[in-house]
Amino acid sequence: xxxxxxxxxxxxxxxxxxxxxxxxxxxxxxxxxxxxxxxxxxxxxxxxxxxxxxxxxxxxxxxxxxxxxxxxxxxxxxxxxxxxxxxxxxxxxxxxxxxxxxxxxxxxxxxxxxxxxxxxxxxxxxxxxxxxxxxxxxxxxxxxxxxxxxxxxxxxxxxxxxxxxxxxxxxxxxxxxxxxxxxxxxxxxxxxxxxxxxxxxxxxxxxxxxxxxxxxxxxxxxxxxxxxxxxxxxxxxxxxxxxxxxxxxxxxxxxxxxxxxxxxxxxxxxxxxxxxxxxxxxxxxxxxxxxxxxxxxxxxxxxxxxxxxxxxxxxxxxxxxxxxxxxxxxxxxxxxxxxxxxxxxxxxxxxxxxxxxxxxxxxxxxxxxxxxxxxxxxxxxxxxxxxxxxxxxxxxxxxxxxxxxxxxxxxxxxxxxxxxxxxxxxxxxxxxxxxxxxxxxxxxxxxxxxxxxxxxxxxxxxxxxxxxxxxxxxxxxxxxxxxxxxxxxxx
Length: 491
Prior knowledge:
There is one protein chain. The chain has 16 helices and 13 strands. It has helices at residues 40-43, 106-112, 142-149, 158-179, 188-201, 214-225, 249-266, 275-291, 303-312, 321-332, 337-347, 358-368, 375-388, 392-395, 438-447, 468-480; strands spanning 31-32, 50-51, 59-66, 75-84, 93-98, 121-127, 207-212, 230-236, 294-296, 299-301, 425-432, 451-459, 488-490. Strands 1, 2, 3, 4, 5, 6, 7, 8, 11, 12 and 13 form an 11-stranded mixed sheet that branches. Strands 9-10 form a two-stranded antiparallel sheet. Strand 9 (294-296) and strand 10 (299-301) form a beta hairpin. Helix 7 (249-266) crosses helix 8 and helix 8 (275-291) packs antiparallel against helix 9. The chain starts with 30 loop residues before the first strand and ends with a strand.
């Protein structure tokens, strides 16, 4: 028992997840289901496109989808879409895009997606259920999220561990009270069923799709459930779909940080003249912040926030290394505003202190899709992580959020993802990817029957849009149906 929370003495699947009282919460965008037989009324919906508020050439729409596809006559969620219409002929249909997360906004991604060479497609981004404008999850106030984010993520003693466990339990309970059984229906399989509904509503017989990071899990699951409807799938910065990979995310961050440190030393940056000096300067800063946070206005740069700030600086690859070196050096000199701002960006905190819905959608989706084995197993995995990734494995700390989540893992976690009936699809992995280690792309391409692997020999999270070679291969695949040779490498 920790802070009144029962913790099992033996590890087991979801052994510490609480079972709260049943609840049907009032959630924005959660409505009565459409009347009719099975999915028929949902498939008969018309997309009423209208100008978006962004003042550009995009149009927006909303549709309904069953909360539970096993019970279409029950309640319904709202799905929000945004489209950048094709500007060249002949039109090739719709290209759905997803930036990952899980829970990142596909509507916002429309502005950032590199459309060069893909003008024959309508580019369509949607907010997956539970996020953005699609029946979003809401759990804590902004002030409460600030408090949660400032916790010591890598506890040094039992008191800090107890506080972290209690905070994650409270986080989950708050989500349950505000969302109820919506939390049981926002997993990847639910989102993939939504995606197939959207494919039908835009009038496409086959799905054309580009997904990044977690978006690759969406694509891989679509290939498994709706393989005969696959047109072209590009899965960039692949996540682990094997359930037995020995590679963890922290290894990707350690690799990327090491590459940054090597560059920093070669460029004679202020952090050191050798790779080890640079790494020691960074870990020395993080260790000092553990007991002496830096004041930044009315806030503080804590060890946890600084770790997030350094992590954020690795997502952009080499283009972000120079500003990363600058904000770390300033923090060492007691100026923590830059590193805290980077942490805010990764955490989805706006300048006004308001958090993006992603901060709630991420754990809600991830924990439904995660088959964890309790708090004790989280402790064991943290110990193991520090051996595999001595820096980020240590400072990212143990993951208590899913072990204490108030909803059981999805029954679909046993679903093998092989996509045997899918048309050829493309998996892309970057050798220096910080957030999704390259081996995960290798494993995904091996497991998906029709997949070919394209390797980007470079830094940062995601490859399409960074490399002219990768861009040409993707555009040719999407527009000319030219499948890259398996094992192609790009710089």
